[in-house]
Design goal:
By secondary structure, the chain is mainly α. It has one domain. It contains nine helices and two strands; from the N terminus they run αααβααααβαα. It has a two-stranded parallel ribbon. The longest helix has 26 residues. The N terminus is likely disordered.
Length: about 180
């Protein structure tokens, strides 16, 4: 940020402390949700997990659009499963999309492309870790990418609304940018 401020000398390059802390918290939560939770075991441990039904020879890749979404909606035993699977994937990258769309003023197309590639990276990482550990703790799921993109579309629509409404725009600008 300091380099950005010195390079461009923009007033809006100074972000509020609360906004900076919010971004830091988001990044830490994104890392926890998307990248951590890796299970590692040896071959004997893997056999035990299979024997007790704790894992199965489940697929590591799910490429059929809307299959997971429909499966989750049709076999919901608790609300938390739906919340984590569907709503969680919708909101996972919405803060990133908001930063791109509202703060950095990316176009809708650039925001969607960047969100797509970040989502693809997360899913690919999860696939590689599952293949290495041989435990399907995460699955490469096309539905996760679809839900992440849907979240970005929601952000784009909300961002357009915010930019057109001066009161809301001023409120958010006061939250994001430090008043001198």
């Amino acid at each position: 940020m300091i380099l950005h401020y010195l390079r461009y000398k923009q007033k809006k390059a100074k972000y509020s402390l609360f906004f900076k802390l919010s971004i830091l918290l988001y990044i830490l939560l994104l890392i926890k949700v998307a990248f951590l939770g890796i299970q590692i075991t040896d071959e004997e441990g893997y056999k035990i997990l299979l024997e007790y039904g704790l894992i199965n020879n489940a697929r590591f890749i799910q490429l059929i659009p809307f299959k997971t979404i429909l499966d989750v909606l049709s076999t919901v035993e608790t609300l938390s499963v739906t919340y984590i699977q569907i709503v969680g994937n919708i909101i996972l990258l919405t803060p990133l999309s908001f930063i791109l769309c509202y703060i950095k003023e990316f176009s809708a197309r650039k925001t969607l492309l960047f969100t797509f590639f970040v989502s693809l990276f997360i899913e690919s990482y999860q696939l590689i870790i599952s293949l290495i550990t041989k435990i399907p703790s995460h699955t490469f799921d096309i539905d996760d990418i679809i839900l992440n993109i849907f979240g970005a579309v929601i952000v784009i629509v909300v961002s357009i609304f915010i930019k057109r409404n001066e009161k809301i725009k001023n409120f958010i600008d006061n939250f994001i940018y430090k008043d001198n």
